Amino acid sequence: MDRRSAIGAAAVLVAAMPLVARAQVAKVARVGFLGNSNASSGATQVNAFRRGLRDLGWVEGKNLVIEYRWSEGRSDHLPALAADLVRARVDVIMVSGPSAIAAAQKATDTIPIVFVLLVDPTPLGFVRSLAHPGGNMTGLASQYEELITKQLQLLKEALPNLSRVALLRHFEASPAILSAAESAARSLGLVARTLTVTRTEEFEAAFLTARSERVDAVQVLPSPYLGAHRAHIIELAARHRLPAFYELGLYVRDGGLMSYGPSSDDLYGRSASYVDRILKGARPGDLAVERPARFELVINRKTAAALGLTLPPALLARADEVIE
Question: For residue 252, which of 187, 198, 317, 298 has the smallest C-alpha distance?
Fold first, then answer.
């Protein structure tokens, strides 16, 4: 190569270097994870989400950065945290629960949002329809209205003498959830007592009310806030010797009695496929909202024994997981 050619080749390399650098930067995706609890309580969901991404080739520290923001169970912190993720210029925001989704929706109408939700997102105004979400949001959503009757039936099977049930709810939970639970209780001939809490300091009083009114069990209604403080709820149920039924298996694995609902690991693992497709160019409004693919009945036999309960063998045989 003569001197002129060498100089020309060097010039081409120098000119190309910024383009190469920009291409390398572009390969690193930035995902915002807006959590309702803290890193410890939310570890199960985060790990399932990360596994799902890893299976699709996205690895933190290699081609992926995840910006974590935790509300510590404080819904009033969510708007500021969502706005912070927008300022961080993430490519996608991963979020769960109505309050957090609403905060992300208000923070941006351009950054794609992937959600996990335990109720129908359509009446909440998050999507136009399940098949055609439109806008910048999509994800996975259960429909609690279809699950609550099954949950109470299982609770009745576990407690044959069940006649009074307390419905523990957070004040920010969708009214549709409470309505469905009350309707399901009536259809099964149960007397339902609604106990609404706004902050953790009210949990103790709610359980004391349940005991004083002689309810037979507590049905914990879906709520990111209650999920963030599930250890406290499980402890109170044990201390007041009240059987409690939950939506997600993670409560039972942490010491709760029973749950029936979508698999949390499945929901968060599958949400990674939405993030993957969006990072590769798909528009969230074109990706249909999916329903949970896996439901699980989880029973903690150790907790049952501590409460003095002998669960029917047929119920234990149908459980997807029995914790001894």
Answer: 298
Same structural domain for residues 120 and 168?
no
Q: What would the mean pLDDT of 217-237 be, rounded to a whole number?
A: 95
Mean pLDDT of the chain: 91
* Banded pLDDT at 22 (limits 50, 70, 90): very low
For residue 93, is pLDDT > 70? yes
Coil, strand or helix at 258: strand
Residue 1 lies in a domain: no
Q: Are 285 and 263 in contact (CB under 8 A)?
A: no
Q: Does 240 share its domain with 153?
A: yes
Q: Coil, strand or helix: which one is 58?
A: coil
Report the pLDDT averaged over residues 129-147. Answer: 93
Domain span including residue 285: 7-143+264-294
Cα–Cα distance between 88 and 78 in angstroms, integer?
15
Three-state SS annotation for 277-291: HHHCCCCHHHCCCEC
- 3-class secondary-structure state, position 288: coil
In this structure, what CATH number is given to the domain that contains residue 127?
3.40.50.2300
96 and 189 in a single domain? The answer is: no
Q: Which two tokens stand for residue 157?
A: 């099977």
The answer on 213 and 178 residing in a single domain is yes
- Asked if residue 115 and residue 49 are part of one domain, the reply reads yes
| Site of tokens 């100089």 | 7
- How many domains does the chain fold into? 2
Among candidate residues 250, 259, 225, the one with its CA nearest the CA of residue 148: 259
Mean pLDDT of 145-155: 92
pLDDT digits (tens, 9 = 90+) for 245-256: 999 999 999 999
**Which residue shows structure tokens 């439109």?**
134
- 239 lies in some domain: yes
* 2 falls within a domain: no
181, 301: one domain: yes
**All residues at 6 or more sequence positions from 242 whose CB lies less than 8 Å from its CB, including other chains:** 166, 207, 210, 211, 215, 217, 218
Q: pTM for the full model? A: 0.86
The answer on pLDDT for 6 being more than 60 is no
